[in-house]
Design goal:
By secondary structure, this protein is an alpha/beta fold. It has 11 helices and 11 strands.
Amino acid sequence: MELHQLRYFVAVAELKNFTRAAETCLVAQPSLSQQIAKLEKLLGKPLFERNNRTVSLTEAGELLYERATSILASVDAATERVRQSGVSEGRVRIGAIPTIAPYLLPSVLVAFQRIHPKVQINVQEDLTARIVKACRDGEIDIGILALPVEGDSLHVEKLFREELLVAIPAKHDLTKRKRITMEDVSQEPFILLSEIHCLGEQIVSFCRQKECPPKTNCRSSQLMTVQELVGMGYGLSLIPAMATQSDRSKKRVYRSLSGAKPARTIVMIWNRHRYQSPLLKSFIQTLKNYRPEKP
């Protein structure tokens, strides 16, 4: 069994298509198909169910996929370890969701590069599912996102809990109250992040738990757009405390809700099967040392 055969097999299993897998692996499709056939012959069992449009894993294929991804991750980790041994000019690849990246990463990266000025840092800002997949597949070294996170191959470590503050137009009557409840907020038009963002769904879930479903006025894919719409008087919203720290506009007011406060838990994740270089361990420690400003 050859490593390139396992890489071809994993590519087909994930893309469910021989042509796309061949393009991804930079190999001709006949060559890829031939290597898959050799692998099946070696194992004595078919690995894929084939039809005209797509392919799916057989029971034997499912078993091999689980082990193959682990093997390839270990090989890639060993390669990276050798490359970085005794070298100060390494690389750290970070992934973070859009509602965290612009608010947390600048401070963390500045602190890290004071210690390691020659290290190359690559940042991938993406949605939760893609960050999880990239971390699992070894495309990034560490991911920063909010719970919940699913993935058996991932180590998940809590960083801090972040309150969600209610964002109110500056001239709104609610700004005059000393105490604002979720019931007060639920009576107002609400602006949310779109469904593609986990934060938007977490806010809806919190409101439903309090039996105060929001009267959604509109949804946006950008947190800054949500804040601007609040400032224009289109409605209220719940905004992560980190995102309020950099908002210098006088068009919005941020207040903490009375009673049980909505919050999210920020975590870092990494593939537990991959080697952690000294540089990555240093970055993890820098991340652990980060303390968000109190709202």
